[in-house]
Design brief:
Elements: H1 2-22, H2 26-49, H3 55-78, H4 84-107, H5 117-138, H6 147-180
Length: 186
């Protein structure tokens, strides 16, 4: 299916992005990152409007997003263009979500992870921040004065969306466990 092929393409763009960053080719990296983000929008729209959703796409699409963002953030932090504390917050949030999803799967059962509004906001803001850092490093835009505020805002959405996942899925797990308990009839 076309949406899955586009998702696979996004995975293949990750090493290209790393190579460009390693060569300090920030303008080209910004272009590849933008292509990756636009292809993410495209595969989602195609899957929704053409009814081409699949279990593979439901898992691989957010994984491609996470790997792209995490890889880009880690390399930018290693190049001192992104604060390490922000990368740590990104990793901790994603680790909490993945750990929670795995725990839910093995303890409660199958889940269908649908992103919440806060998570979508966080992803959009992550894109804006990372694109801004790339644009600034490439000399394409004067973004540097706004970066501290954007970093703080991103940290807030990371914390809020991470807490929302823990709260909502924790409650669902408790309800499912309660519903699965045998009742004593006596």
């Amino acid at each position: 299916m076309l949406p899955n092929a586009i998702t696979v393409l996004r995975f293949l763009l990750i090493p290209v992005l790393v190579a460009l960053l390693a060569g300090h080719r920030y303008g080209a990296a910004a272009a590849v990152f933008t292509i990756s983000a636009l292809s993410d929008l495209a595969d989602g729209m195609i899957a929704r409007y053409c009814n081409l959703r699949s279990r593979f796409g439901a898992i691989a699409d957010p994984l491609a997003d996470k790997l792209t963002m995490l890889t880009l953030a880690a390399v930018l932090a290693m190049q001192a263009l992104l604060p390490p504390w922000l990368v740590a917050a990104i990793v901790l949030r994603d680790l909490a979500i993945v750990t929670g999803a795995l725990a839910y799967h093995f303890v409660v059962g199958r889940y269908d992870m649908a992103p919440f509004f806060l998570s979508k906001l966080n992803t959009a803001l992550s894109f804006v921040v990372l694109a801004g850092v790339l644009a600034s490093a490439a000399g394409l835009a004067v973004v540097r004065p706004m970066l501290p505020a954007l970093f703080g805002l991103l940290l807030a959405t990371l914390a809020a969306s991470g807490a929302q996942y823990v709260w909502v899925w924790g409650r669902r797990a408790l309800r499912a466990r309660r519903a699965a308990r045998p009742t004593a009839h006596g």
